[in-house]
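Working notes for the structural subgroup meeting. M.R. asked for a predicted model of this chain before we commit to crystallization trials. I am recording the input and output together here so anyone reviewing the notebook later can reproduce the run.

Input as submitted:
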Amino acid sequence: MATKKTATKDVTKDTKKTAATTKKAAKKTTTKSSASKGGYDKLVIVESPTKATTIKKYLGKGYEVLATMGHVRDLPKSRLGVDVEHNFEPQYMTIRGKGDLIKQLKTAAKNCSKVYLATDPDREGEAISWHLAHILDIDITKKNRVTFNEITKTGVQNGMNNPRSIDLQLVDAQQARRVLDRIVGYELSPFLWKKVRPNLSAGRVQSVTVRMIVDREHEIQNFEPQEYWTIDGMVSKASGTKTEQKPFAVKYYGINGKKAEIKSKAEADEILENLKTAEFTVTGIKKGIRKKTPPPPYITSTLQQEASKRLGFQAKRTMKVAQELYEGVNVDGYGAVGLITYMRTDSLRISDEALAKANELILNKYGDKYALSTPRKFKTNKNAQDGHEAIRPSVIELTPQQIKENLTSDQYKLYKMIWDRFVASQMAEAVYNTVSVDIKADKYNFKASGFTVNFDGYTVLYTDADEEKGTSLPELSENEELKVKEIKGNQHFTQPPPRYTEATLIKELEENGIGRPSTYAPTITTIQLRGYVEREQKVLKPTLLGEITTQLMKEEFADIVDTGFTAGIESYLDKVEEGSVNWKEMIKTFYTAFKENMEIAEEHMEGRDMRIPDEETDIECELCGRKMVIKTGRFGKFLACPGFPECRNTKRIVKETGGICPLCGKKIIQKKSKAGRTYYGCEDNPNCEFMTWDLPISDKCPKCGATLFKTTGKTKRIHCLKEGCGYEILDKNK
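Returned structure, recorded in C-alpha cell form:
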C-alpha cells in the first residue's frame, strides 16, 4: 500500500476552512474576558458530564467545562455515507439530538479566549476533538488538544500544562476503522437479509468473533473422547507420631523409571493386582526453592478476564464500572476524584512517580522485606499501542477499605481488584520450599510432591483466582518403607475444548490480534444482541442463526471471517496511526478486493436460499389470534405477530421462573438491569415493586409455603422473603 504522512484530503479541507477564520476568531475572542458573559475565560470540552464535574473542581475559576456525551458527528445512519467514487470521502453529519448541545458549545466557545479539547486519550477521543474543531472553527494546527491519563489534580494539571495539536494520524486511524466497518456492514448486511433473514447485520470484527465461537462448537461436536486410566493412592510413614503419619497422595508414573500411560481397565486391573503384594519404598527425594513473581498490573483485556472469573462481571459491566472509577467518584475529604488511570490500554508501562509511591506505601504498610530495591517493570506485548499506562489506582494512598463507603458494591469490588493487583506487582516474590519424592512398588513408579510457603511476599495481598493451595509432605528419607492406605484405579476420558466464556474469548481475541481494548466488550455485547450467540450460564454458544450465517460467510467471504486477515487489518490500522500508511490507500486496496468478492458471491448465491424460519411459540397474538413467533432485533429477541404488516403487534419475551411474588402472589419473572445484570421481579410491575437479586427456586418454605430464594454471594443461603416469616438456612449444595 502507498504511504503518506501528510494529513488526508478531508483533514486538509477542514484545516483550510478553520485557518481562514483563525485571525477573525482570535480578534473576537481576545476582546472577551472572564467577566464577559459566562464568568470564564477558557473552555474545556470533555466527553462525560461526570468527568466534566471532576475536572472543573481542579481547574477552578476562569474555566468552564462542558461535555459532548460522546460523538457529535458521524456517518449517516440511513445511507453508506462514504463516497467510494471520490477517494472514499466520508460524509459526516451532526448526530441526531446533538443540535442543542452544539449550539451551547458554539456559544461557550465564542465567550472565551481559549478552547481546550480534552476528549478521551485514544483514537475515538482524538476523532471527537477533530470533529469539534471542525464544528467550532478551531485551528487544528494550534496547541488546543489536552489529554488526561488520570482525573486527579496532578493528572489534570499535567494535561493542561502540555497542550498539543490534534494528532491527525490518530484521527486517520479512527476514520479508517469507521469507514472500513461501515463499508463491510453496509454492503454485507443487505446480502444477509436476502439470503438468511431480514434485518441482520454483519460486522468486520463481530463476524470473525462469531466464527470463532461456531468453530469451537464444531470442535466440541466432532470430538471423540479417548479412554485413559490413572492409579492414585494414599500412603503414609510406617511409624512416628500421628501428625507424622498423616496420609499423603501418590500418583502412578510408569514402569522401571519410564513414563507410561494406562489406556484400559484391563491394564489398570493388572497393575492393581500386582500392587497388592508390593512394598512402597522411597527411592529419591529432591528438595528445592521456587520463586513466584507477581502478575503485572491490569490492561483492558486482563481486567475484563479477571473480573469475569472473580466477580462474574460481563465485559460490558466491567467497562462501565471502570469508566465510573476513571471519571470521578466523590470521596470523603477529597471531593470528586478519578480513582484509576485510563481503562482502555494494552500497555504495561507505569510512570516513575507511581512506582515510587507504590514502593513508599509497601514500605510503610508491609515493611522492608516486602518492598523492592528497584521497581519491577513488565514487558509490553510487541503489538501494544503503549499510548497509556497500565490500569492502576491514580491516588494509591486511597485504599479500597478506606473509601468503601463512598463506592457502590461494583465500584468497590473492581477498585479493590485494581488496587491489590497494582500494589502486589511491586512487592517481593513469594518463595516456596518444594519437595518431589520418587516411590517404587515392585517395578512400578509413583510420585508425590508438595510445597510449603517460605515467604508469602506479594501473596499477602493478592493471589491468582486459581492459585493452588500448599500441600506439605512429612519428612521422608531414602529407602524408607511406606504404609499403603488406599490404591485405586480411576477411569477418565479426554475432554473436548470448553466453550468460550467472555474471559477466555477476550483472551483469544487478544492473542489473535483481533480488535483492540476498546472493542472487546461492545463486540461481545453486539453478537449476543443480534442473536448470533447466546449466553448459557457463563458460556457462549452459537445459535442456529450464528451457525447458518457463519457457514455462508466462510463459503463466500472467507477473508472477512479469517482471523489472520482480520489481524492484518488491525496491523494496517496501527500503521496508519504511525503515519507509515495512508488510510485512503488502505481502504482502496481493501475495497477493490471486497467489491469483487461481493459480485462473485451474488453470482454463487443466485437462486439459493438459506433462510431460517421464525420459531413459533404457543403464545397467541391478542390482536388477531395468530401464534406469535420469536424474532431478533437490535436489542435482542422479542415476540412478533407473523401477520405483519397487517398486524404489527410485538411484545417482549418474558422468562418465567416458577416463583410466586411474596408481596402480591403473581408470577416472578427474570429481568435484566441496564447494566446487563439478571434480577427477578413481579410481573405486575409497576403496580408491584417486588425485586430481588436472589434466585427463586422450586422448593417451598416449610414455615409458610411461599417461594424460597437462593442468594448469589459467596455465602449461599436459602431464605424466605415473605414478610414476617424469617425462614433461612445455609445451602448445603453450594
